[in-house]
Write a structure and sequence with these properties.
By secondary structure, this protein is α+β, with helices and mostly antiparallel strands. It has 2 domains: 1-73, Arc Repressor Mutant, subunit A (Orthogonal Bundle); 75-134, Ferric-uptake regulator, C-terminal dimerisarion domain (Dna Ligase, domain 1, 2-Layer Sandwich). The chain is built from 4 helices and 5 strands.
């Protein structure tokens, strides 16, 4: 167990409060509100320790660096916004995916990622909440 420093407490607090997977830079930016001057290298070191302890896990999306979320969230999937590149959790699962495996194959787990626009980016695209141009 790593010792509890102000930096580690701030990083853990940010990850727990986010309710979505965060990139190391997002973690650093949010944690700086608690610990001024916190650097991204400290975030990476702390994430490595938290992963080793089983407190956080990496969320891997194809072609992207990992994001991090607390362990123990149960089975869930992710939505990646094409507008702002943030990733969100969602609990729905289509189920029945074992039937998609080729004959003779045994499915043991799956990842499911939806891509599109989050509500904020979808509203911007529609012009909701923006001034009309003259």
């Amino acid at each position: 167990m790593e010792r509890l420093t102000r930096q580690r407490i701030a990083i853990a607090t940010v990850i727990e409060a986010a309710r979505r997977p965060l990139s190391p830079q997002e973690i650093c930016d949010a944690a700086q509100a608690h610990v001024a001057g916190l650097g991204v290298a400290t975030v990476y070191r702390t994430l490595k320790a938290m992963i080793a302890e089983g407190a956080v896990r990496g969320v891997e999306l194809p072609g992207e660096p990992p994001r991090y979320e607390p362990t123990g969230l149960g089975h869930h999937h992710h939505f990646r916004c094409d507008g702002c590149a943030r990733v969100f959790d969602f609990d729905a699962c289509p189920g029945g995916l074992d039937a998609l495996a080729p004959k003779g194959f045994v499915s043991e787990r799956h990842e499911f990622v939806l891509y599109g626009k989050c509500p904020e980016c979808a509203a911007r695209k529609r012009g909701v909440g923006t001034r009309a141009r003259r």
